[in-house]
Fold this protein.
Amino acid sequence: MNPKRKQRLMAVGLIVFGVSSAIGLAAYALRSNIDLFFNPSQIATGEAPLAKRIRIGGMVVEDSVRRDPESLQVQFALTDYKNTVTVSYTGILPDLFKEGQGIVTSGELNGAGVFEATEVLAKHDENYMPPNVQRALDKAHESGAPTEDGSL
Amino acid sequence: MIPEAGHFALILALCVSVLLSLVPLAGTYLKVPLWQQSARPLAVVNGALLLLSFAALTHAFLTDDFSVVYAASHSNSLMPWYFKFSAVWGGHEGSLLLWVLILSFWTAAVALLSRQLPLELKARVLSVLGMINVGFLLFILLTSNPFERYLPNSPTDGADLNPLLQDFGLIVHPPLLYMGYVGFSVAFAFAIAALLGGRLDATWARWSRPWTTVAWAFLTLGIALGSWWAYYELGWGGWWFWDPVENASFMPWLAGTALMHSLAATEKRGVFKSWTVLLAIFTFSLCLLGTFLVRSGILTSVHAFANDPERGRFVLMMLGVVIGGSLLLYALRAPVIKSRVHFTETSRESFLLANNIILFVASLTVLGGTLFPLAAEFYDYEVSVGAPYFNLMFAFLTPLLAIALGFGARSRWKTTSSARLLDKTVIHAAISFVAAVIIPWLYGEFFFLAMVGVFIAAWVSCATVSDIREKTRNKGLWRGWQQTSRSYKGMIFGHIGLAVMIMGAAIVSHYTVERNVRLAPGEAAVFGDFLVTFDRMEKVRGPNYIGDAATFDVFPAPGETAALAGLSPAALKMKYVGEGAEPLFELKPEKRRYVVSSSLMTEAGINPGLFRDIYISLGEPLGSGEKEQAWAVRLQYKPLVRWLWLGAIFMALGGGLAVSDRRYRLKIRQRIDRSPGEPAITPSSDVDASVLKPIAPRSGA
C-alpha cells in the first residue's frame, strides 16, 4: 500500500473509531441520564414512574408553602390548575421562588404520592414562563384530565 | 431626535453592507481593481455608522430617555450610570446591536490591518463579512429594532434592569463573549474567500490564523467570565451548569480550539487543508446555531429572552443559508484541493489530527445533548438532558485529549521516532500517578475521577515542561526560554492553562464541602475545617434596592468537626467566643430587594484564595418571631475553584502571546518599508520562508 493511502486509511480509521465510540457512549449516557418531564395531572393519573428521577413543572399554589420550624424542610403544592402534587424539599429555595410562580423541580415520586425534590428551579425573569411549564399547563388544559374538585 | 438618527444610521449601515457584499466580489470576477479596492472604505464606513447607531442608543440610556421602548423596559433613572451603560446590552435588541457593532468592528479591523493581503483575496474576505453584516442588520431592522418609541405618551420611568445583570460581570461578559463569537466569522470569511478563489493553500491558513487565535482568546475569557459571574452572582456557588446557552458558547469554543490547531498544521505543513476549511465553516455555523438557540427561546434555559418565534425563524433561515451555501461551495470546489504531504503515525500531524477528532466529537456531544430535548419534543416527549450526561461524556473525552496532548507536545513534524516519544513517558506517567495519589490523599478522600483529573493535569504539565527543557537544552533554561518565539510561549501558556483548569475542575467538583443550615444571629455552625458564627443582621440601602446584610465571622476549627458536631449552635458560639479566639475574616452576604421590579437577589459573601474560597450566601428568612430572626444559610468551602478561571486567563494570555509573535509584527514593519498604496500581490513569503519551505507547492506565488 502506498504511504498516502496508508495515511488516509489511518485518518479515516481514527475518525470512524472516534465518532462511533462517542456515539455509543453518548447513547448510553443519554439513556441513563435524561429526565422525563411530567405535569401534575399526569402524576395524578399515575403516568409517572415511582422512585425514578423525573422533572415536574407547574405553578406554586398560593398559601401552600409550609416550613418546618426547626430545619430547612419545606413543603408546597404544585398545580397545573387541574391537579396538584405535594412537593417536599430540604434546602434553600431560589430567590425567584414565590407562590403563584411557575417553577420546574426534579426529584423522585414516593409511594405516598409526595414528590421528593432534590432541585428546585425558578427562572431569572419574572415575566418569563419556562416553556415546558407553559406546555404542561396547556397540555393539562387540552387533555381534559379530571380535576380534583370536578370544575374546569 | 437622537434615537431616530441612530435608527437612520442603522439603515445606512445596511445599505453600505449591501454594497460591501456585492461590489468588491463583483470586482474580483470582472477584474475591476477599483471595485475591489472599494472594500476597505466601505468596511470602515460601515463600522463608523454602527458606532454612531450604538452611541445613539447609549445616549438614550444615559439620559433616561424612556420614550425609547427598549430603554424603558431595561433601565431606570435610579440606576448608577455604569449600569445604565451596560443595560444597553442587557436585553435582546441591544445585545444584538452590540453583536453587529462588534461584527462591523472585526470587518473594519480586517480591512485596516491586512494591507499586504492580495487585493483579490481581501476583496473576497470583506465581501463575505459584508454578507454576514447584511444578515444581522436585516435581523435587527426587521425583527428587533432597539429604537422603537412610545409616542406620544412615554412612561415617566423605566422598568429597571434585571437585578442579576446589575453587576460588573455583565458590563464585560457580553462584549468579550461576542468578540470571540463574532471573531470566528473572520476565519469563516477567509475560508469562503479561499474556496471562491479556488486557492486553498497554506497562505489561506497563515492569514486567518492570527484572527482565529484572537477570537478564540476572547471567547475563552468571555466564557470564563460568565462562569465566574454565575459563581458569585447566582448565590449557590456553581460554576458551570450545562445550560443550553452556556453550551451555545462552549460548542464554538471546542470547534474553535480544533480549528486553531488544524490551522497550525495547515500553515506549517500544508496538511488537512479541506478539513480545516470544513472546520471553519462548522465553527461559524455553531456560532449561528448558538444565536438561534438563545434568541428563539426554543429551549428551556435560565438565559432565555422573551420568546419570539419570528426571530427564531429568521436566524434559522440565516443558518440554513450559511450552512447550505458554504457546504455547496465546498462540494463544488473542494476536489481541486490536493495535499501531497506525508507524515507518519507518530508525527505531530497525527497528534493534531487526534486533537481535532476529539474536540470535534466533544462539540458534537454537546450539540447532541443540547438538541436532544428538542428532537424528543417532536415525538411528544418532554425530557431534559442534565449535567450527568455531559459530565460523563467529558470525563471520557478530556483524558483522551490530555493524553494525546502529552504525546503531541513532545512530537515533531513529519515524523518522530517512537523511542523518542516513549523515552520519558514512563517517568511522566510515574510522576503523574504519584500526584494522583498524593493530592487526593491530602484532601482526605479518594475519588476515581478526581484521581484521573489530577493525573492528566500532571501529565500535561510534565510533557509541557519536558518539551521546554528539551528546547532550551543548549542554552540554559532561562536564556533558552527567552529566546523561544512568542507563538511557542503562547502554546506553552495555553497548555499549562488547560492543566490548571483540569486540576481546578477535578478538585472543586469532588472536595467541595457544602452545608445548608438554619442560623439565627448569635449562633454558630461547623463545616469542613471552619467554624462560622452569625454575628448580626443589618438593614442596608443602595441606590435602587434595600437589603439585609449579615455579618459572619469565620474561625479555624481543623479536625474538630466531630468533636463540635454535638453542640448546639449557641454552645458552639459560647465555646469560641469564650476562648477569645480571633476570627480569620468576616463575610457580609446580603439579600437585596430591588425596589422597582420588586425582585430578590442574593449577594454572596466570598473570601477568595488561591487554594480555596469560603462562600456564604443567605437563603430566605425562616423565623417570623419578634426576637429570633433565623435564616437559611448556605456555607461552602470550595478548594481550587479559582484555578478554573486562572487556567482560562493563562489560555487567553497564550493566545495573546501567539498573535504578538515576531512573524506577524515583521509583516507590519515590512509593510511600512514598501511604498504606500502599492498593493502586495504576493503573499509575504519572505518572512518565514524557512518554516514554509517543505510545504506543498503554492500556486501563483
